[in-house]
Design brief:
Blueprint: E1 6-10, H1 28-39, E2 43-47, H2 52-64, E3 69-70, H3 72-85
Parallel strand pairs: 1-2, 2-3
Length: about 100
Amino acid sequence: MLNNKKIAVDFDGTIVDDAYPGIGKAKIFAFETLKRLQAEGFRLILWTYRHGKALDEAVEFCKKMEWNFMPLIQALKEKFLIQQINPENWMQTGS
């Protein structure tokens, strides 16, 4: 069964100080909070306007901090799959 506990987290200005396109200093409360959420079974989604090299750098930074973010596309596919298998979302037809 898929873990439905997911949180989308912004990067610049939220978990690091805003230094775009560079990488700001990690915010201590964010580091502690994200590690705790991961330990509680939450899956983290990196939600950012970064792309290309700036995104690659942010992802590498997160890996070094041991923040394991799932790819957004995976999260969207799982949401779609969950909606498809949830009986409450099935269309009912009558005669």
